[in-house]
Amino acid sequence: MSTLHDGLFGAGEAARLFSDGAEIRAMLVVEGALAQVQGRLGVIPETAAQAIHRASLEVTLDPAALAGPAAQNGVPVPGLVAAFRAAMGAPEHAQFVHWGATSQDIQDTGLMLRLRQALAEAEAQTRATAEALARLAEAHAELPMAARTYGQVATPTSFGAVAAGWGWPLLDLLEEVEALRASSLWVSLSGAAGTGAALGPRAAETRARLAEALGLTDPGRSWHADRGPVLRLADWAARLAAALAKMGQDMIALTQTGIGEVRLGATGGSSTMPQKANPVGPSALVALAGQARAQQAALHAAASPLGQRDGAAWFGEWIALPRLWLSALAALGHARTLAEGIEPVPEAMAAGLGLAHGGAYAEALSFALARRMPRPEAQAEAKRLAQLAAAAGRTLAEMARAAHPDLDPGTFEAAAQLGQAPAEARAFAARVRAGA
Hints:
Domain Adenylosuccinate lyase C-terminal: 357-429
Protein name: Adenylosuccinate lyase family protein
Strand content: under 5%
Order of helices and strands: HHHHHHHEEHHHHEHHEHHHHHH
Pfam family, one: Lyase_1
Distance between the termini: 34 Å
CATH architecture of the domain at 356-419: Orthogonal Bundle
Family: Belongs to the class-II fumarase/aspartase family.
Radius of gyration: 29 Å
GO molecular function: lyase activity
């Protein structure tokens, strides 16, 4: 990641999960846990298992020293195993490192350890963002503003309902997390071609014990050529980025000149235009979601490996997966900051309801008129009055009251036309408070 742009697109401390050091450390943890399990099962000598496990926690390997072997072998594990054995300085024990496993077992399991942490970080940040949106939704459940469809003023809604609309998809994603952990955070241990032959007669038990030791799920089978677990985790992250991008798009629209219905907690400036307060955070949300979707497509393109294991498909995964997760985590940082700092501008929202000559009340007018005439005629009359208002430079309310003096006064009052918006805003806030 660029140092220059890290504040804009960086994932903060979470980015370390996808660093070379974190990848190496995770693979050493797997090697150590595997040896420990095999020692307890009598697959390798207990003394060797203890030495390997202890060394896996103490040894530090230089990523630069492993780069050459990784390029030559097409995978970092052979170089890592060789360097780990050398660093142990006890060949009688080191010979049992990586016993019966294959490179993909170690790398995939190490990846799952890191993805578990990434998912936990994403869950925490998503929950904090939802909590900030819940406070907005509850505080402004009845603050009227114009809803917009196709970019045009539609009918009244409330800012609380808009905030809740940003938050509901986050709650849906949070509800999936526990099932996602069980269905996707898998241990991998099945040997060279997925048969576990070199692991011996206790291969299945070894895999189950390794899963238990690492806090992962034992899928009960080889998944070298089944990238479903990786895709499920990646798709969740991509959908999260997409949900945050919707919030970003709305904030960009609501801060446009001539609308200005919200104020962001932080904005960007121009190098030449002093008046500018650019929606930098919302724009980053949109850009990061685009990056996440692009990497998601790349992952799916690489999700059909050849045979029992495939280098090309695996390489594609290494390129795309970190970028996707880093994009989602970076977006969460922006989203939380925005949700905690955004403020509505009530006077601008009131002005927005008056745009298009008060056309936001046209639907309400058509239903008010339908109490005295057939619905099709009422719709036609409301449209006629809206066109007259536009032509005369007057408001729809003025034209309608002139033509139909006995109309219900609430027809043109935003607070009376919010429908279920306040209830949905409060329902969202209640669900967040309940820990959903």
